[in-house]
Amino acid sequence: MLKQPIPTLHRDGDTVVILDQTLLPFRTQTAVLRTLADAAHAIHSMQVRGAPLIGATAAFGVALALRHEGSTDETLTRALEVLGTTRPTAVNLQWALARMQRTLRHLPRTQRLAAAWAEAAAIRADDVATCAAIGGHGLALIRELAARRDGPVRLMTHCNAGWLATCGAGTALAPVYAAQAEGIAIEVVVSETRPRNQGLLTAWELRAAAVPHLLIADNAAGLLLMRGEVDLVITGADRIAANGDTANKVGTYLKALAAHAAGVPFYIAAPHSTLDFACPTGADIPIEDRGASEVCRIRGSTEAGDIAELELAPPATCAANPAFDVTPAALIRAIITERGIVAPGELARLYPEEVR
Ligand code: MRU
């Protein structure tokens, strides 16, 4: 299973070091988080992004808060509040903070800081193991398709659900890396994922790992699916409701519709920390609105190698920027979890302890 070439997040003494994803794919640079504010900023500004990585960063953010502000009840409450409002859609954030709260709230103050570091490290390790297990289950699907084809298996994905979005090998891309390690020929179709272009991060990851891939404009996905140029679609998820409806990066729903029309199986790959049995359906999932500027501006690299932003539309242009959409369970063939592959409506059978 793929080992992260650069850790997306790790502890270094009393600080936390992250790979700054706002500079990718142009520059590989780390940033140091020292305080609660640093951690909250990293999540909100998308220096770290991807549901599992957001959760792990929030957990370390709690440890940073206790380290700098003392281990009082007030510090803990404030850290949970500040981090809990950084991004609304990925439930992994709330999952990680709830786990930190359960671990820390009944402990004497003198034990809290060490316990916070330890629990954050356990959340990170949990994600590494979870990604590996998802990769193993997804590999079985790819193996089956490979056995039926002469050429490479053609997998479409959306956004970035690779190692950059997690602490391990990724969710949707973990099966790809597992297939590559087994010598299965595979090609990945990657949609650019406007407006933040997380697909460019996926292409960057795949290029570095020497996985053949094809970057397409978001709007080309339907044509490729209709022409029979894709064997399966796998995307990640930010929150899966009790009925299997799934929130993921905006544009996922359109791919699921096109895949359905073309008879191409559409899968979601996600860990237990993305399940939200308290959320009955997709209509109950909060969708983040990131504001007009991300739609009206674009970031890229100049010929001189500087990272620059360009205006695509005059500043007063009215624009909407819902960052996620919801794919109804009926369009999802199955969900690839660390415990196995199940139909969306069967998640409760796989995770009985999560159902309240
Ligand atoms: O806004 P982002 O970049 O945090 O959104 C990320 C996604 O939507 C991913 O596809 C999702 O979190 C799955 S992560 C393994």
List its salient traits:
Rossmann fold; Four Helix Bundle (Hemerythrin (Met), subunit A); alpha/beta; seven-stranded mixed β-sheet; 11 helices; binds 5-S-methyl-1-O-phosphono-5-thio-D-ribulose; 356 residues; four-stranded mixed β-sheet
SSE layout:
Elements lengths: L8 E4 L2 E5 L10 E4 L2 H9 L6 H19 L3 H12 L7 H13 L4 H40 L4 E6 L15 H8 L4 E6 L6 H11 L4 E4 L4 H6 L5 E4 L3 E3 L4 E4 L2 H11 L3 E4 L5 E2 L16 H4 E5 L5 E5 L12 E4 L6 E4 L2 E3 L4 H4 L6
Parallel strand pairs: 4-5, 4-7, 5-6, 7-10, 8-11, 10-15
Antiparallel strand pairs: 1-2, 2-3, 8-9, 9-14, 12-13, 15-16
Helix pairs in contact: 1-2, 2-3, 2-4, 2-5, 3-4, 4-5, 5-6
This protein binds 5-S-methyl-1-O-phosphono-5-thio-D-ribulose.
5-S-methyl-1-O-phosphono-5-thio-D-ribulose binds next to helix 2 and strand 9.
What does this structure look like?
- This protein is an alpha/beta fold.
- The chain has 2 domains: 9-126, translation initiation factor eif-2b, domain 1 (Four Helix Bundle (Hemerythrin (Met), subunit A)); 139-354, Rossmann fold (3-Layer(aba) Sandwich).
- The protein is built from 11 helices and 16 strands.
- The protein has helices at 36-44, 51-69, 73-84, 92-104, 109-148, 174-181, 198-208, 221-226, 252-262, 293-296, 347-350; strands at residues 9-12, 15-19, 30-33, 153-158, 186-191, 213-216, 232-235, 239-241, 246-249, 266-269, 275-276, 297-301, 307-311, 324-327, 334-337, 340-342.
- The strands form 4 sheets. The protein has a 7-stranded mixed sheet. A 4-stranded mixed sheet has the order 11-8-9-14, covered by helices on one side. It has a 3-stranded antiparallel sheet with strand order 1-2-3, covered by helices on one side.
- The protein is globular, with a radius of gyration of 20 Å.
- The two termini are 34 Å apart.
- The site of 5-S-methyl-1-O-phosphono-5-thio-D-ribulose has 17 residues, from helix 2 and strand 9.
